[in-house]
Amino acid sequence: MNIDPNQSQDSRKIAWKKLPRWLRILLGVLLLLSALASGYTSITSSFYDPAPDTVLPYYDAIKHQDYATAFKYLAPGLKDVTSGAFITEPTFAQQAEDIDRPKGKVSSYTITNVAAGGRNDSSSNAKTYTIAVTRNGTSYDVNVYVQRQLSGAWQIIGFDTI
Which has more pLDDT, 136 or 118? Predict the structure, then answer.
C-alpha cells in the first residue's frame, strides 16, 4: 500500500481554495489580528509598571495607618518569613503598629529602584521595588516584591519590613 505524503497537504490546499474568497480573506485577517493582539499583550506586560496600581496605594495606606486597605494589596497566602505562619489582616495590622510605636508613622516614601524579577521569579511577571521609607526623619530601604497573579492583577508577594 503506497501512501503519498503530499496527499493530505494537497487536499488541504484544495479545501482552502474551495472556500469563498471573502471567507479566506476574513480568516486571514482574523489570524493576523490574533497574532498582533498576542504580541501586543506580551510586549506591554514586559513594560507595564504595577507601581501606580499596587505599590503606591499600598504605601499610601501604610502612611495613613490604614492597614486594612494596605492588606488588600498583599497576595493571598502570604507567609511570615520568621514564623512561617500565614499573614492575616489582624497580624499584619499588629506588625505595622509594632513598627509605628518605636519608629513613628511613615511620613514619606519614594521608589528608588525597580528591578525586573522578584524573589523566586526572574520573568516579566515579577518586579522588585526598593522604597526609601522615612519615619521621624530617619530613612531606610524596604524591598517590596510584586508579582502578576493568574487573574492578571499584580499583588505584593513579599516585603522586607513595613
Answer: 136
Cα dihedral sign, 103-108-113-118: positive
User: Which residue, among 133, 132, 158, has the nearest Cα to 146 in the 3D structure?
Assistant: 158
Distance in Å from the first CA to the final CA of the chain: 74
Q: What is the mean pLDDT of residues 56-62?
A: 96
CA distance 133 to 142: 7
Cell numbers given for 91: 497580624
pTM recorded for the entire structure: 0.68
* H or E stretch covering 98: helix 89-103
Three-class DSSP category at 61: helix
Q: Position 122: which residue type? A: S
